[in-house]
Design brief:
single chain, alpha/beta, Rossmann fold, 2 domains, 6-stranded parallel β-sheet, 17 helices, disordered N terminus
Length: about 425
């Protein structure tokens, strides 16, 4: 049984007041999508369930002392990851990911100790994670302290990149945002069918569902021609140096551009003075700028790509050996649903734009994008409320922090018991 939620954006006015709840929401800053998803979820949840007390926790900050990269270099692993993305140094993402996962396994014991001590400080009604790779360590630490607190992972990628990325063999809840991820969750055999939830897409900030701001942007106010086609160039919150090359090649095709540079101040400075191009640093008005564009150009990240599609912008995305392993399925998904095109190198951006803009393809792709109807950010709070209703947490028990060796043995016995249950055997998907 898979849950498909179709209720309205907000709780009904005549509904009974929600119970006070305490949630702990974990994110990290490897890329900008995890923090963005967490903050969007909090904004939506607070509107629907004002009695919720949501604690937002940066997992990397919590585990800083156990990070071997930080111990050796003085820089957190996520800082180096973001620097690599900013410079386009993303070749070999698969071996990098496997090395990271190996490092997590090697440092699992000290990580569990830190997490157990953190979980022992309070007893929330729910633990929510929007981070990959660390869910096994987090779940084991939670179960060593609290046996009855439900654990939820919300995938912020369109599909999983197994093994050990988003999904782990443990008795928890999974919330996914695509049919592909739904199949993966069922076919893994890790989860009870009733603990798998599907939303209508990725988490977007509520600003993407509202009318443009009170002082809406226009082409004229940012120095662009309203009669020309406009591309929006965006590479997440850290930008990318290739943005300048893309803008110049589009300019040669008579296409103007809006470049969102994010926190990349060097890129913003380098973009100044290009005719027919408006460059902007980090901004909360991403939706406003997207409303001025005809199509999106960038990497196939699930956040920025689905933001563009939600606002009816077809996508032109890169597909080569630099594409991050967790983003490669996004390209397949976009092309199968005729939401955009992929190119091997942005040196071909001019031809790709000409292809998209001719023969009615742009209108067809816009129509396909408008059919997606992504309401995930409003669906998930109701899913979390239903999980907490089904798993009331006892306030009569005190947390117990077991020594590491005892916690590992207890966790191993629990996993062995769960594997022996019929619902943890591989099964045919229910859809």
């Amino acid at each position: 049984m898979t849950h498909h939620f179709t209720f309205d954006d907000q709780a009904r006015p005549d509904a009974a007041p929600a119970k006070p709840r305490k949630l702990q929401l974990f994110f990290f800053d490897a890329g900008g999508g995890h923090r963005s998803a967490a903050e969007a979820l909090i904004e939506s949840a607070k509107a629907t369930y004002p009695n919720w007390d949501i604690e937002l926790m940066n997992l990397q900050e919590l585990l800083k002392k156990t990070d071997p990269v930080y111990q050796v270099t003085g820089y957190q692993a996520e800082t180096l990851y973001n620097a690599a993305i900013k410079r386009g140094w993303t070749y070999g993402s698969r071996p990098f990911l496997r090395a990271l996962q190996r490092g997590i396994r090697m440092n699992a014991a000290p990580m569990r100790k830190v997490l157990r001590e953190y979980f022992a400080q309070s007893k929330p009604d729910l633990i929510v994670s929007v981070v990959p790779n660390f869910n096994k360590v987090m779940f084991d630490a939670l179960r060593a302290v609290h046996a009855d607190v439900p654990y939820v992972t919300i995938m912020t990628d369109i599909a999983d990149s197994p093994p050990n990325f988003w999904m782990a063999n443990q008795d928890q809840y999974m919330i996914v945002g695509s049919h592909k991820a739904l199949l993966q969750a069922h076919m893994s055999g890790f989860y009870r069918p009733e603990r798998i939830f599907e939303t209508s897409g990725m988490i977007l900030r509520p600003a993407f569902y509202k009318d443009v701001s009170d002082a809406p942007l226009t082409h004229e106010t940012i120095g662009l021609d309203p009669n020309k086609k406009t591309a929006l160039i965006m590479f997440g919150g850290n930008g990318a140096v290739v943005s300048k090359e893309i803008a110049l090649k589009l300019q040669a095709q008579g296409i103007q551009s809006i470049v969102l540079c994010g926190h990349n101040k060097a890129l913003l400075a380098d973009m100044q003075g290009i005719e027919g191009c408006h460059a902007i640093g980090f901004t909360q008005k991403v939706a406003d700028y997207m409303c001025l564009a005809n199509f999106f150009v960038g990497k196939p990240g699930p956040g920025s790509m689905t933001e563009a599609l939600h606002l009816g912008l077809p996508v032109i995305i890169e597909n080569n050996s630099r594409t991050m392993i967790q983003e490669r399925y996004n390209i397949i998904w976009a092309e199968e649903n005729r939401l955009g095109v992929s190119i091997k190198n942005f040196a071909h951006i001019g031809r790709a734009a000409t292809f998209l803009l001719n023969s009615g393809r742009l209108d067809q792709h816009i129509s396909n994008a408008n059919r997606l109807n992504n309401r995930a950010v409003y669906e998930i709070p109701n899913m979390l409320e239903s999980i907490m209703n089904a798993n009331p947490v006892s306030r009569d028990t005190q947390p117990i922090v077991l020594p590491e060796r005892m916690a590992v043995r207890a966790g191993a016995r629990l996993r062995a018991m769960l594997r022996s249950r019929p619902h943890h055997q591989p099964r045919t998907p229910f859809i």
